[in-house]
Structure formats: C-alpha cells, structure tokens
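Lecture notes, structural biology module. Today: joint structure prediction for complexes of four components.
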Amino acid sequence: MNHSVSHTKINTLSNVHSIDRNDFIIRNCEKLFNIGDRLSGIYRINSGSVKLYRSNEAGQEQILGFYTAGDIFGLDALSDGKSQSSATILETSNISLIPFNTLLKRENSGDYKIFMQQVGINHNRDIDHTMMLLHCSAGRRLAWFFIKFSDNLSKRGYRADEFTLPMTRKDIALYLGVAAETLSRVFARFCAKGFIRIIGHQRSIKILEIDVLRNMINRDD
Amino acid sequence: MNHSVSHTKINTLSNVHSIDRNDFIIRNCEKLFNIGDRLSGIYRINSGSVKLYRSNEAGQEQILGFYTAGDIFGLDALSDGKSQSSATILETSNISLIPFNTLLKRENSGDYKIFMQQVGINHNRDIDHTMMLLHCSAGRRLAWFFIKFSDNLSKRGYRADEFTLPMTRKDIALYLGVAAETLSRVFARFCAKGFIRIIGHQRSIKILEIDVLRNMINRDD
DNA sequence: CGCAAAATTGAGAGTACTCAAGCTTTGTGG
DNA sequence: CCACAAAGCTTGAGTACTCTCAATTTTGCG
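The predicted structure, tokenised, for the full assembly:
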C-alpha cells in the first residue's frame, strides 16, 4: 500500500461487508493519498471524516467533497489506477481499503450490488454539489451545506440541530466555491437573522430555523 | 422500456461490447428519459450526442453534462433505479441500453472492467466540470469548454480546430453556470481577440489560438 | 416571406472578490 | 499556568465581474 502516512493496521471483523479488506486508523490531519498516487483500491469510511480535493498550480485547494461514515471514495482511480485528487483526514478516522481485485472478483454479488449503489449515491451527491455551484448565491449555498450536513447526521441517528463541523471555514468556502470572507459574512448574516447560533466556539453550530434554511435552497430569500 | 419517445429498434452487431444490449436510434431533440423515470439500465452512445440536465422549480434547466460517442450515462439510477436527471438528444443519435441485470451478471469480466473504467472516466469528467465552476471566470470557463470539446474530437480522430457545436449558446451557458448574455459577450471577446472565429453560422467554430485558450484555463488572462 | 427561437448588445444594479487590518482561538514551550 | 506565535476567523472599503432587464438583430423553418 502506498499511503503517504503511517497507519495502524487492526484486525477487526467486517461489520458491513464480507469482502476482503484492510482496516486502519488514521489520526487527525494526515494525508491519505495525493494526486497522481496509484491507488490499490476503494476507500470506505467506518468512522470519522475525510476531505477530497485538488490543488491548483497556485497551491490553493479546491475541495470536491466531504465524506463521513458509510461513504466510499477513491473512485478517481477507477479509470487508470491513479488518483486525480488528494485525500486528507479531518479527524481521527477508521477507514477500510477495498482492493480493486476484490471488486473485480465476483464471488459476492450482494457486495457488488451494494458497491454499485454506493457509486450511484456518490454520483448523485456530486450532482447536487454541482447544481449548487451552477446558479446559487452564497447564502443559498451555505443553507444547502447546513441542510445536507444536518440530514446526513439525522440519517445516521445523531442530533440534527446541533453539531460540530469537522472542517474549517476555509474548507467550507473552498467546497462551496466562495471566498472565505464571503462565507464569513454569510455566517454572520445567518446568526443575525437567527437562523443559526454559534455555540461556544466557531465550529459548534446550533440550527434554530431549519425550515427557513430548507426553503432558502430553492427559493430566493 | 419506459422511454418518453418512440425509437426504432435495429439489429446491429455490437462493435465494442459483447454483452447484451438494445440498440436504437433517436431523432433530434427527443427526450430519452425524465427525472424520476425508472431506468432499466445504463445508456451508451454509439454516435450522436446527448445532454443531461435537471430542471429547477422555476422551469430552468441546469445542464450537468454533454455526452458523445463512446460515453455512458444514466449512472444516476444506480442508487435506486430512478433517474435524478433528464436526458435529451441533441442530434440524431444511435444509443444502446445496457440492462442492469446484464451489468450484474458476471459472465463477462472484460466488459465489466471496461464499464468500471468508464464509470471512473465519467467521474473524473464531472470533477473537472465542478473544478471549473468553483473558482473560474466566465472567460476561463469558455476556454475550458473549447479545449475539452476540441480534445475530445481529436481523441476520436476528428479535426480538432474546426467543428460544429451540437448545442445552443443557452445550453453552453447553463452548463458553464453563467448567464447566456455573459457567454455571448465572452464569445464576442474571443472573436475580437482572434482566439476563435465563427464560420458561417453561430455553431460553426474555428479555433485560431488553441494554445492561448489552453493557457487561459490555468492562468488568468 | 413571415414567424418564432436563438443570439447579440446595451445600461444599470447587485453580489462577490480582493486587499488589508484586526480580532480570536489553538497549540506549544518555558 | 502563562505568554507567544501561528492559524483561523471576522470586518471594512473599494473594485470588478456578472447578472438582470430590455431591446434589437440574426437565424432557422414552415
């Protein structure tokens, strides 16, 4: 395996898939792989979160997606084995590597089907992301971001109205395609209007008016 | 099959894949499927071109991608069988439908591998699209569009410096996430600067300064 | 030839960007 | 435990780009 980081290999029984895989834990802020790295498989997150991004020649990141428990990533490498993006861990995470040849083996059609579904889910999420970038104001983008984050928590059985973001403001800005300053201003506006409240410190958010945010995604404010 | 259009089924020998499929020809501007349609498989373009899009509640289209010969589309439906987007033919096209259960059958691992690669290629292309939308000016977006279009022609053995676009200006604008008027102005600017020339009528383009356009994608003009 | 759709052009308004400075939080070491 | 440095975040001012609305021209098709 050619990861840029050291990782602790652990022996754990697969709780979701029965297919072969390697599990490991990665600490905060470590890099999982870089653009151009040859990946030996698809990654699956069991816990924690990851950001996927590219850097342009100016050295600035452009964030393509945030991934959390249950998500797979590394599809970039399906076409020719080499990743078109970099992956960095946002918080201590447990991640599995599912080797390509396991995917290509066909003993296990149930897993295969699940994998294909997950590919479809990823694809749809990317489309959602693109749609936001196509025509929406900074306010609608942030509203969309909160709703998606909240819905994702809710789907996994966590509190949907109060949470801690695993990423920085800058990361969110790069993901939503706005300047960090603009994002900061929208945060301030949302607080002033009482849509959200920032608890304690910057990354802890309480959503006060989730319906307002949900409507904002489609209709202009 | 639940297409919104009538299509002529033809008996043709598959020239690329050996897996089961249904081939048909669709005329200009016909709709292949709508958001919410249950798709029975993945589509593959043998000739012609297709646009994939969603409509928002205001009735405006947001174009997610243009597809040409060799491309597959319809991955939207992998997650739950229902498409998250609509597909419309831009010019008379020959298209194959590869049923899901053919994909799930495993007699033919060669085809399967090709399919997975194609999934990866689509994914990378979507990422490219997203990257452009994240941080680039209208000028850079159009330069990128021309380069991608030209490179695609060149890869398939066609002339790369002179071509006819199968889509309208409005379609390009919706794909690049700019207003149609803005796009028109950028077109005019590119012509004035001698980067491109519009031959005969609007959709026939000759690229005069492909290197300038190529550089423009990364560096600001 | 005439109509409808597509494309262009102009003017004005608004949103987001950039640059710059100041403030807050986090982490490290004494 | 405190102090300092670095990173993260916020706020302000001015600019630039793109959008919207509206009118006109061009193209495509019956």
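Point to remember: The interface with chain A takes residues 54, 56-57, 60, 62, 64, 75-80, 84-85, 103-104, 106, 109, 112-113, 116-124, 126-127, 129-131, 133-135, 174, 177, 218 of chain B (CB under 8 Å).
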